């Protein structure tokens, strides 16, 4: 009788463990780079018009992300998934752009917008200027600095005569307006000033205060005492210009946002982590890292001991995985960097370490938080209308994921969870179940039943 109890108990226990392992494996939906590219296609489409912070397109993408978090049963970190903050944002004011040169004899000349000159988006505190040789004008080899009672304007020679590049927007930038010009325009302005002409310029953009949002969701861990792992990516980009050119921002940073969402989707089907995993879709990175600054400062008590990994530009073939830390982290130890470098080496992923404040990791580093960015630092199409989804590589996405996958699972999940969600567990329990079911004890029990 005792042997029968042991036998049936072992058989039932093994069957339950096998069933649990099968259930875990069948409910887990692993990371898929094709899903990442599909979302990049969506977010960088004409529909969202470049996702400029403060625009309708930006708001719509934020709502897609929020719905994604709720659909996958993430919880908000605070009262709401949407954490608001205010920014100054550039808007198209629908005025006519012009650059006119007027001479004393009544002759005037108008230069062509988008051919001879174009605004640089970095600041629009002023939208028009009029100046002459009576104003303060400093001339340099590749730019002209103009100071009037109205403010300051900088005309600079564009590295590309097609004016395709658009800078980030920085409301605190020292100049009230910046204008890209070609060599012909540079010479015309200088010659006209020498001849006593008056130069007038109007740019069809101005500034308006907007309320915008970071989107934050949490996969809750089993221990609130452990510091969280925070994964971030910015979803804003540069919008569109007055010529209706859309700055799609596929690599920068529909790619990082889509990478973040696919990690989140996959982990939402996995077991419970040991620590909280916080996902943050940041806004206004292109306005000077304002979203990450707002999130980090407002949640400092909750995240001060966290590790933060930011995704910015994921998916360019032929580029090493740049691990970027802020300038304030140079010559300081980073356990996060050490662990990532070790994982990358074991996975044969080439890495490059830089210390720059050019992405959202810097906002965390400046507050003493261990943070870095993953980036394929391909700058060939960045901040131009040519940053499109067709240049994104799923091989490069998978290469970056091989590193983050190991980091996330090793640092945030226990052995038992990883075991049951791994296919090895199915193999082990299947063999064990078959062994018990076919053991000599089974034959013995069957014979006893026949008797």
Q: Can you walk through the features of this model?
A:
With about 450 residues, the chain is α/β, with parallel strands linked by helices. It folds into 2 domains: about 20-90 and about 210-415, Aminopeptidase (3-Layer(aba) Sandwich); about 95-205, no CATH class. It is built from 13 helices and 17 strands. The chain has helices at about 1-25, 35-45, 55-70, 185-195, 250-265, 290-300, 300-305, 335-345, 360-365, 395-410, 415-420, 425-435, 440-450; strands spanning about 80-90, 100, 110, 115-125, 130, 135-140, 145-150, 150-155, 175-180, 200, 205-220, 230-235, 275-280, 305-310, 320-325, 350-355, 370-375. The strands form 3 sheets. It has an 8-stranded mixed sheet, with helices on both faces. A 5-stranded mixed sheet has the order 4-9-8-7-6. A 4-stranded antiparallel sheet has the order 3-2-10-5, with helices on one face. Strand 6 (about 135-140) and strand 7 (about 145-150) form a beta hairpin. Helix 2 packs across helix 5 (about 250-265). The longest helix has 26 residues, at about 1-25. It is elongated. The two termini are about 15 Å apart. The mean pLDDT is about 90.
């Amino acid at each position: 009788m005792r042997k029968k109890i042991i036998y049936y108990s072992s058989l039932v226990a093994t069957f339950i463990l096998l069933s649990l392992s099968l259930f875990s494996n069948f409910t887990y939906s692993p990371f898929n780079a094709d899903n990442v590219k599909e979302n990049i296609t969506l977010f960088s489409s004409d529909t969202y018009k470049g996702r400029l912070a403060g625009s309708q397109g930006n708001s719509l993408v934020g709502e897609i992300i929020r719905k994604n978090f709720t659909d996958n049963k993430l919880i908000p970190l605070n009262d709401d998934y949407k954490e608001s903050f205010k920014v100054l944002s550039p808007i198209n004011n629908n005025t006519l752009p012009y650059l006119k040169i007027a001479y004393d004899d009544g002759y005037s000349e108008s230069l062509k917008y988008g051919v001879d000159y174009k605004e640089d988006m970095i600041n629009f505190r002023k939208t028009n200027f009029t100046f002459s040789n009576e104003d303060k004008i400093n001339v340099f080899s590749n730019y002209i600095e103009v100071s009037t009672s109205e403010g300051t304007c900088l005309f600079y020679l564009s590295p590309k005569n097609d004016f395709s590049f658009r800078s980030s927007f920085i409301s605190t930038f020292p100049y009230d307006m910046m204008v890209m010009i070609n060599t012909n325009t540079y010479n015309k302005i200088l010659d006209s000033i020498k001849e006593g002409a008056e130069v007038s310029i109007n740019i069809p953009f101005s500034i308006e205060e907007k309320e915008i949002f970071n989107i934050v969701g949490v996969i809750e861990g089993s221990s609130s005492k452990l510091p969280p792992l925070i994964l971030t990516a910015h979803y804003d980009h540069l919008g569109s210009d007055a010529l209706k050119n859309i700055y799609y921002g596929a690599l920068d940073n529909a790619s990082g946002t889509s990478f973040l969402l696919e990690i989140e989707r996959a982990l939402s089907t996995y077991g419970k982590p040991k620590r909280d995993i916080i996902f943050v879709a940041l806004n206004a990175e292109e306005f000077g890292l304002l979203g990450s600054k707002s999130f980090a400062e407002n949640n400092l008590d909750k995240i001060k001991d966290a590790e933060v990994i930011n995704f910015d530009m994921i998916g360019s073939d032929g580029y090493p995985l740049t691990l970027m830390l802020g300038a304030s982290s140079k010559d300081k130890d980073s356990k996060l960097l050490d662990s990532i470098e070790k994982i990358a080496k074991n996975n044969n992923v080439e890495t490059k370490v830089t210390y720059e404040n050019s992405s959202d990791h810097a906002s965390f580093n400046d507050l003493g938080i261990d943070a870095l960015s993953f980036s394929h630092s391909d700058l060939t199409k960045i901040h131009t209308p040519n940053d499109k989804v067709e240049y994104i590589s799923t091989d490069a996405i998978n290469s970056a994921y091989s590193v983050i996958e190991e980091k996330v699972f090793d640092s945030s999940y226990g052995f038992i969870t990883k075991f049951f969600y791994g296919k090895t567990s199915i193999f082990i329990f299947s063999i064990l179940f078959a062994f018990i079911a076919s053991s000599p004890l089974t034959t013995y029990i069957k014979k006893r039943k026949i008797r």
